[in-house]
Amino acid sequence: MSHFLQTQRHPATHTRLRRLAVISLVSMSSCITACSGSAALQRLQYDFGLPTSASTTTAQSTLQIGLADIQVTPALDSNAMWYRLQYDNAQQLKTYAQARWSMPPAQLLTQRFKIRLLANGTQILSTGNALTYQSVLHIEIDEFSQIFTTTSASHAQISLRAVLTKGKAIVAQRSFEAQFPCQTADAAGGARAMQEASDILSRDIQQWLTQLAAT
């Protein structure tokens, strides 16, 4: 009888094992799907988009300058998208966990500035073989973040210092700051507003350089 019971239990045991295997496969599949979804969110990247119609205006400037590599603070030397909660603790920088810039802020601004300056007729010269009489623009970014004034309202803010040199002499220097409101209180809204703020800065720097050339 003992042998009979053992032989009768085998099919039931196999059935239970098959059920456990199916359950395990379903659980693993769900986990993989969830993890893949999280990975997709982690891979969201933003840049400043394509040049706007304002970038195709008729060239008006005759400036010739070199654009040195833009310098940043250590915190900005990455692809992280930074924000501050001004209503809570404005001194604390936070980063979006599921969004990144496609390149560090210095490269984003360099690319955008070149597009805007060239569109206005400014010639961007190579600084590799800089001549003593060539004007070189040096930029250092101090702030490049999305500032939340409330839980639902924010703006992009870029603060930088610009120094114009000729050879080893400093011709002029000035601080610039631009803010632009975000349409949405998230990374996507911050990215769009940051692009607008960078265009404001490129316009202000263009005007500053033009005024210096006229003096």
Structural class, by secondary structure, is: alpha/beta
Low-confidence stretches: 1-9, 25-37, 54-58
What CATH first level of the largest domain would be assigned? Alpha Beta
Tally of individual helices: 3
Task: Name the helix and strand elements from N-terminus to C-terminus, one letter apiece.
Answer: HEEEEEHEEEEH
Q: Calculate the terminal CA-CA distance, rounded to whole Å.
A: 111 Å
Q: Kindly report the CATH topology of the largest domain.
A: Rossmann fold
Global geometry = elongated
**Total tally of structural domains:** 2
Can you summarize the main beta sheet? 9 strands, mixed
Task: Describe the overall structure.
This protein is α/β, with parallel strands linked by helices and 215 residues long. It folds into two domains: 1-43; 47-214, 3-Layer(aba) Sandwich (Rossmann fold). It has helices at residues 2-42, 105-119, 187-214, and strands spanning 45-46, 64-67, 71-72, 80-85, 89-101, 123-125, 135-148, 154-166, 169-181. Strands 1, 2, 3, 4, 5, 6, 7, 8 and 9 form a nine-stranded mixed sheet that branches. A hairpin with a 5-residue loop joins strand 7 (135-148) and strand 8 (154-166). The chain is elongated and about 50 Å long. The model is unreliable at 1-9, 25-37 and 54-58 (pLDDT under 50).
Summary keywords:
215 residues, Rossmann fold, 2 domains, nine-stranded mixed beta sheet, 3 helices, 9 strands, 39% helix, elongated
Write the layout of secondary structure elements.
Elements: H1 2-42, E1 45-46, E2 64-67, E3 71-72, E4 80-85, E5 89-101, H2 105-119, E6 123-125, E7 135-148, E8 154-166, E9 169-181, H3 187-214
Helix pairs in contact: 2-3
